[in-house]
User: What shape does this take?
Amino acid sequence: MIRAAAFAALIISLVTGPLLAQSEGEAAEAARAAAVRLEQATRQLDEAQSARDRVRALTETVAAFEDGLEAMRDGLRRASLREARLTRELQAREAEVAQLLGVLLSMGDRPSPTMLLHPAGPVGTARSGMILTDVTPALSARADELRTRLSEITTLRILQQNAVETLQNGLNGVQEARTALSQAVADRTDLPRRFTEDPVRTAILIASTETLEGFASGLSEMTTDEDRADLPDISNLRGTLPLPVQGQILRRAGEADSAGITRPGLLVATRPRALVTAPTAATIRYRGPLLDYGNVMILEPQAGTLFVLAGLDVVYGGIGEVIPAGSPIGLMGGQDAEIGEILANSGNGTGTGRPETLYIEVRQDDAPVDPEAWFATREED
Assistant: This one.
């Protein structure tokens, strides 16, 4: 069903070899980690007994495919940059290379005594031999360097050509995994519930809400059957939670956008259809469209604290459910890039397109706080 094993082997072949020789081991390590994660997720999927186990395994599978595709894009980008650099270096030394090739061709395989008979007689011949003794190693070294660079360019081009099939396998695999994950989430019925949603009151709140702040404040008044006694205290996790999506921070809390508008949350750029997961165990307080934020997921990890995630295309789970850490809560919008687009971006040294954005806001006791007080953030390439 999901071609995880084949894809894992292919991504490793793409980013190893000449890249490792150029101290690009980080890319290969990322590929190996993705391959291991794929293999583990496949085993989990084979052993899954319940809908919850299947959701967990498929979540890992989707995430591993995303890691693998990211490693591939990075490997392609590095390969393209390396090839372009080698090509420029050889073009800049074109005259030197031509002269070197001419000398080597003129020398050929003929024995040195024949080549170095000097018209001045034995003394001249002896001097020529001494000169050749000094020059030949340098010529050989330069020739070896030339052969190595030409060979590396050829290898890099072959790897990039072979990437087409690898990318297709990865894109097909991640799409299959997403579809299977959506079905598994729909089939899951064994999650605990903290409260039951009141659709009428939810609709009234949405209709009367003009701001995200107003909606978040109104959530605490919507439920009457909620048991809040067993809500955990996760204060010890502050600053360590993973971001709910793989991406790159575009704007931090309080930073103005192009229109001069500031917001109290993080804006993260992601790839199309990226998986969004719960950073910690939490209760789903709301999921669905809200104002101009697209689909919104609001999680309550502890009493009085809300994680607001806005801008999703697909949302998973039901209001009132208590979900474990790492649970899938949705997918970003957009469409996966076509293979031609990925290769073209890699060829010009980019390959990092992240057109979708996820807005992350944290609220404590009805007031926004800097999300970086909770999430471990780092810049990604």
About this structure: Residues 1-190 form one domain.
